[in-house]
Write a structure and sequence with these properties.
The protein is mostly helical. The protein is built from 14 helices and 2 strands; from the N terminus they run H-E-E-H-H-H-H-H-H-H-H-H-H-H-H-H. Strand 1 and strand 2 form a beta hairpin. The radius of gyration is 24 Å and the shape is globular. The two termini are 42 Å apart. 26% of the residues are buried.
Amino acid sequence: MYKKASFKNSFEAYFFILPAFVIYVIVVLKPLLNTIVLSFYEWDGASEKIFVFLKNYQKLFSDPIFLTALRNNLAWIVASIFIPMILGLLLAVLLWSIKNQRIRFLFQTSYFMPVIPSLIIVGIIWGWIYNPVFGAANKILKMIGLGALSRGWLGSPVWALPSVILAGNWTFFGFCMTIFLAGLQNIDKNLFEAAIIDGANRIQSFRYITIPSLRNQINLLIIYILIGSFKVFDIVYVMTKGGPFNSTEVVGTYMYTRAFEHSLVGYGSSMATILALIVSISTLIFLRLREEK
């Protein structure tokens, strides 16, 4: 009876999973496999495909623009780990210390607001802020006596990438804050009381109680950052389209221009395949390292 009931429950579970699995195969797995297959061909999207095997991949890793784009993605990961995560954690701790629930909710809602607009809208707004003629960034610098620092932020090969990364991270710190705040509410306050009795100060309590207790939230955000930073496209394309001189190029924008603007579908597919492989491997390595610790 037990085996029959178990088989029946399993069958019912698979039956309910089946529609979602079919959609997943059609929407995700099938296009992914098609992309991998196309990466072995030279194709402009219209004429006959030419099988070139690994030629696209050989060309890819000798392409200086692709290597620059990959390096920019790595810079985006590092910045996204340090800027929004640290800021979100500090804001979450400050909000957690507020006893008045209405005031806490007001600040939490205000800080979460940048998460709501799409990155396309965010890119347009920050493009206005960085505008060298009427942008708020240069006007604020002039108002506080730092007019010598004003510049064309998105037109500078040196400052364009940090400017775009700052705009992207502005939309993410509120999400980090919300995740950390949810984790803080699950920490047993008796731990802090015991630490105070043992003579620990606030910094020690934060280091030895708060941070270890937020391990799951930190893991979640780092994985989210790894995937999101390699997938970033829309805000870069809206603000700079990878310029000036490919200084803000990321794999997503370079893949799009090669595949759709220059009709190098096979070459773009090889980039998409490498990108998916990097995201999968980096996520698995991170999870394995965290499990070992």
